[in-house]
Amino acid sequence: MHGQSERVLRLFIAMACLVSLQAGEAAQSNDEFIRGYATAVIAEHFPSAVGNIRVQDGTVYIEGARLTETEKSDIRKMLFDVVGAGKVDVIFEQAVPTVARVVEELPMFLPTLPLFHPLLADPRWPHFSISYQRYVDDDLLRNVADTSFGESFSIYRFQGPWETIMEIGIQAGVFAIFDLDAESFDLINADYLVGIPITVQKGDFTNMLRIFHQSSHLGDEFLLRGDSTERINLSYESLDNLLSYDLPGGLRLYGGAGYLFRRFPSDLEPWSTQIGLEYRSPKTWLGGALRPVGALDLQNHQESDWNTDLSASAGIQFENPDFLSRKLMLLLKYYKGKSPNGQFYESGIEFAGLGVHLYF
Fold first, then answer.
1. Could you give the strand order of the β-sheet that contains 59-63, starting from the edge strand earlier in sequence?
2. Using an 8 Å Cβ cutoff, are 327 and 109 in contact?
3. Selection from 246, 282, 330, 359 nearest residue 77 by Cα
4. Are 276 and 295 contacting, i.e. CB atoms less than 8 angstroms apart?
5. Which residues fall within 8 angstroms of residue 165, CB to CB, at 6 or more apart?
């Protein structure tokens, strides 16, 4: 009887060890799944922004020294939506030298997102958009449709000196305005831009040096109307440099200067400056579907005696955790200064508008 009790006890202990072992393997397997998913998602949407990833007992530890509060919120939302809220926690920490796994391996061809984020209030930043603009006290235009087609693309990203990340890309865009008061919505002006940006990033600092060409053309319908007595063959190349810094609380500050060369007309003054401030709320609305955004862009050109061109934007960003590389925004815009529409660069304008903007 004693021997039988001993055998039962041994069987019980063996079964307990087996259950414990299976539970441990299951927890380890779950950690590996979470780490694999987190690594894939972050490498897709936030390349170069994150260092290493490790998972322990369902908690994701991410080295996020280069992440803004908005990006951290995006990462948490992506992981919660797939793994399940309450089943995973995300902790952002400083570098952990003992962890060897790196999210992004450099060099890399065709990264998902450019290092230099788009400027939301810059009237000539290449992106896709359509907007309605109401001009104030303008002799030529009142109700205007403004459209843009284009984007910034990363071509090659590599490790730079002094622990920086560098990137070469391409920008291209078309910017056009149409007179909505005309019977056939006449095309008034179209500007064409193509450029090559070289970007360097270290921590929260990102610098973009860019050379680009821009030319401007009047619409045929507008020329036939006879509203313009002289067509200006505006065309130039430009070299500009912008430095951006990510501040806490979803803020971003940027500034720089530019110089025009090979310009026509030849008497076009070459120098310009640009500064701006942007805000992307770290908090979202409606379960993470909406994020408040705002931006202010100030440009001064030697051609206009250094008077300030003011451009402001405010609105909401629509979000989906599966498409965070695409930023769809509904923005109210206000502009006052010299016209950004090339053929009318000597004219002062003021307008308010509402539009849909898509950034990558």
1. 53-56, 59-63, 89-93
2. no
3. 282
4. yes
5. 48, 106, 115, 157, 158, 159, 200, 201, 202
Q: Render 305-360 in DSSP notation, one character per residue.
A: TTPEEEEEEEEEEE--GGGTTSEEEEEEEEEEEE-SSGGGTTSEEEEEEEEEEEE-
Contact 332, 314 (CB under 8 A): yes
Element (DSSP H or E) covering residue 301? strand 290-301
Task: Transcribe 119-188 into DSSP letters.
Answer: -TT-TT---EEEEEEEESS-SS-SEEEEEEEEEEEEEEEEE-STT-EEEEEEEEEEEEEEETTSTT--EE
In this predicted model, what pLDDT tens digit does every residue of 165-187 receive, in sequence order? 999 999 999 999 999 999 889 99
Helices (H), 46-92: 69-83
Average pLDDT across the chain, whole number = 82
Beta bridge partners of 59: 56, 89
Binned at pLDDT 50, 70 and 90, residue 45 comes out as low
Residue partners of 92: CB distance under 8 A and separation at least 6:
62, 63, 64, 67, 72
Separation in Å, CA 175 to CA 76, 179, 275, 282:
36, 14, 21, 31
Structure tokens at 227: 């509203």
Residue 116, CB half-sphere, CA atoms under 13 Å: how many?
Answer: 30
CB 281 within 8 A of CB 295: no
DSSP letter (8 states) at residue 248 = G
Q: Rounded CA gap, 234 and 193, in Å?
A: 12
Which residues are CB-contacts of 68 (< 8 A; sequence separation ≥ 6)? 204, 246, 250, 252, 280, 282
Residue 72's φ and ψ, nearest 5 degrees, are -60, -40
For residues 298 and 274, is the Cβ–Cβ distance under 8 A?
yes
Q: Is 196 helix (H, G, I), strand (E, B) or coil?
A: strand
Residue 244: per-residue pLDDT: 96
CA separation for the pair 323, 222 (Å, rounded): 40
